Structures are given as C-alpha cells and as structure tokens.
C-alpha cells in the first residue's frame, strides 16, 4: 500500500474546479475597499465557518462514505476485469470478421464510383 | 490559514470588470472642461459618498455574509468531494464500456463506407 | 485617495468620441473663406457660449451628480462583490458537474460516429 | 483658449469634400477652348459672386450660428459626460454579469456537442 | 485670388472624358482613305464650325453662367459649412452612443455562442 501524501491531497487534480478559497469567492477590486478590520474579520468568519462545518461533516460521515465507496468500486472492478473486458475481446474478434466482409462489399460497390467522382477535384492533385 | 493580502484584494482578478473608480465613470474630453474647483469637488463628492456607503454596508453585513458563504461553500465542497466526484468516476467507467461497444458497432458499419467516400477527395492526398 | 490629474481629465479615453472643439465642428475649406474678423468672432462666440453653459451646468449640478453616481456605484460594487460573484462561483461549480455529465453522454454517443465520418476527409491528413 | 489658424481653417479636413474653387466646377478640355477674355471674365464673375454671397451670409449669420452651436455642443457634452457615460458604465457591469451567466449556459450545453462534431475535421489537425 | 492658367484649363482633369478633337471623332483606317484634299477639307470644316459655335455660345452666356454658378456654390458652401457639418458632428456623437449600446447587446448575446460553435473548427487551430 503506497504512502499517502498528507499535503497535496488531489494529486490527479480531479477536484480542481471546486475553488472554495476565500479569494476565489470574495474579492474587492480597486476603488471598492472596505475598512481593513472588516475585510480581515470577513476572511476569518468565512474560513472558520467553512472549516468548522466541513471538518464536522467529514468527522461524522467521512469514514462511512469511504468504506461504502470501497465496496462499490470493488464490485465494479471485479465485474469489469473478469467479465466485461474478456467479453469485449470476443465481440471485437467477431466484429473484425464482419467488418472485413462488409468492407469487401462496400469497396467493391462504391470505390469505382467514388474514384470517378474524385476526378472532379483532379485539378488539386500534386504530381 | 494563509496570509491575507490587504492591498491587492483581488489576486485572481475575478471582479476586475467592476470598475468603480472616478476616472472609469466620469471624464471630461478636451474642449469640455468644467471649472477646476468644480471638477475637484465632484471628485471628492463621488469618492466620499461611494466610500461612505460601501464601508457602511460592509461594516454592517460584511462579516455575516462572509460567514454565510463559508457555510454554503463547506456544504458544496463536502457534497462534491464525497459524493459527486466518486459517482462520476463510476459513471465514467460504465460509460467507457458503453462507448467501446458503441464505437465497435459504428466503426464496423460506417468505416468502410466513409473510407470509400473518402476516395472522392483522393486528389488532395499528399503521397 | 489618489491624485487628480487636472489637465488630462480623461486618462482612460472613455469620452474621446465627444469632440466639441471649434475645429471639430466648424471648418472652412479652401475657396470658401469668410472675412477674417467674422471667422475670429465666430470662434470666440462658439467658445464663450460653449464654455459658459458647460461651466454653468457643471457648477450647478456637477457635485450633486457626482455624489449620486458615487452612491449608485457603491451599491453596485457591494451587490456584485458580496452577492453576485460568490453566487456565480456556486453556479460555476454546479455547472461544471452538469457539463461533465453532459459531455460524458455526448462524447459517448457522438464521438464514434464523428470519428467514422471524419474518415471521409482522410485524404487531408498529414502523416 | 487656443490660437486660431487663419490660413488653414480646416486642420482636421472635415470639410474637404466641399470643393468650390473655380477649377473644381468649370473646366475646358483640350479642343473646346472659349475666347481668352471670356474665360478670364467667367473666372472673375464666378469668384466675385461666390465670395460676395458667402462673405455676406457669414457676416450676417456667422456669429449667431457659431454661438448657437456653442450652446448646443455644451448641452451635448454635459449630457454625455455626466449622464450617458456613467450610465453606460453601469450597463456594462450588469451586462458583464449577464454575459457570464449566458456564457456558462451556452458553454455547458454546446461545448461537448461542438467538440464531438469537431472530430469530423480531425484530419486537418496539425500534430 | 489665384492665378488662372490660360493654357491648361482643366488642371484637375474633371472634363477629360469629353474628347471633341477631330481625331477623337473621325478617323480612316488603313485601306479606306479618301482623297487627300477631301480629308484635309473635312478637318478644317470640322474645326472651324466647332470653334465658331463654341466660342459664340461662351461669348454670349459664359459670364452669366459662371456668375450664376458662383452664387449657387456660395449657397452650397454656406449651408454645408455652417449647418450640415456641425449637424453631422452631433449625429456622430449620438450614433457613437447607440453603437456602444448595440455592441454591448450583440457581444453579450452572440459571443458565447460563436465561441462554442467555433470549437467545431478547432482542428484548424495552429498551436
């Protein structure tokens, strides 16, 4: 079991679009600055409440949810690896035959026509 | 908790389109200049009233609003991180199978035809 | 509060299209010149009346209008900074999810077809 | 008040299209020349009457018209500088929001489809 | 009052298309030559009658017509310089506003759609 990076907890950037930092949400452009202490207090309020609720929610449910997803993904992995992928291999082989036969027919019928119509653009040919 | 930049309060430029400086709003072109003291007084009036009302509003509601958004974003982050993203991962795996199956069918049926029709543009091929 | 440039009163050129100088309005081409004193008198009349009325109007209403716009822009800045922008952030996050789901469906259905049809233009491929 | 150029009275060439010189109006090509004195007399008649009437008209009305245009342009400048431009600034800010919202919807709906259809032209991609 | 060029009476070439010389009108190609004296007599007849009638007509009416055109062009110059051009300046300023408003609407509505549809041709992008 690999080590767990405690600092960068999204190494594959799958949740990057969820920006919930203070500066992603609230920002005062030049010319509209509130009083310094108000801005500072807003920053602490935002962070304290956000962290409090998030940490509370994960403390209560985090482990259960993770366990549940563990079971679910075990089931999915088992199904796909042992049934779906081999079945697709069979399908692929049979489809290959069918496609070869179908290509034979189509090329037989259409190629001469298309080559003929292709003469319309003969002027673009670079010899 | 990171430091708060008190000078540049919009490091990600998300509110850049809100230009509320005096020179963004009022400007006198060449040939239409009011008396100097009037222009100066206008500048001070604009800034004093703008700052007074903005600072008053943020003083009253700023912290509450920030706290409210903190809770809201904690909820959003929790939902997306622990439910939505893993659910999408499941969906993605199943969709990958479905797409592979559907691609097999489509490529089997259409590829020969499209290759044949592609001969029409054969003159553009660079050998 | 920043300094006010009393000479160039339109640093961002937002009112450049308002050309109200004498030579922007009245001009005599070669071959149609009035008597010199008439032309000079017209120049002074134009400028005196223009400046008199403009300076009078700004003297009467300038400061009030500027104060009014100050309040208005304080209101706009407050609304946008503390409500609209964070709300858009929430919307953006949810929309990101929806788009991911919708993209999954669309790519699943359409990608194989479009790739197959793309073979028609195979001749343009640069290998 | 800037200096007035008494010789070149159209520094911005706004009335260049009004050519009222004798050679702009009357001209005899090779092979159709009137008697010299007639041509010369026509030249003087044309210029004397043109100048007489133009100078008379400007002497009578020039200053009044210039004064009138002065008032008019003072009114226009005042309206545009103090009302129209700030109002457009407000409109711009609100429109910016609306556009962001509309762009979110459109990109959410159309982007996956357009990307998928774009695969049809995949052969033109320069890798 | 400028000098009058008595030789080149069409310095701006405004009447160049009126070719009334003998060789512009009558010409005998190779193989169809009249008797020499007939050709020479025709030449003199043509020129004498043309000059006689043209010079007579200009002698009678030239100066009056020139004077009349002088008055007319004085009227035109006065109208255009003192009324039409300033009026167009007013129109231009108002049109500038209207255009800004219309551009705002159009960019707001169409920009997101066009960007999305532009993805169809993403393959032609040069990175």
From TrEMBL, chains A, B, C, D, E:
One of its GO terms (molecular function) is molecular adaptor activity. Pfam families: Caveolin. It is found in: Cell membrane; Golgi apparatus membrane; Membrane, Caveola. Transmembrane segments: none annotated. The keyword Membrane applies. GO terms for biological process: caveola assembly. One of its GO terms (cellular component) is Golgi membrane. Its main location: membrane. InterPro entries: Caveolin. It is a peripheral membrane protein. Keywords: Cell membrane, Golgi apparatus, Membrane. May act as a scaffolding protein within caveolar membranes. Interacts directly with G-protein alpha subunits and can functionally regulate their activity. Belongs to the caveolin family. This is Caveolin.
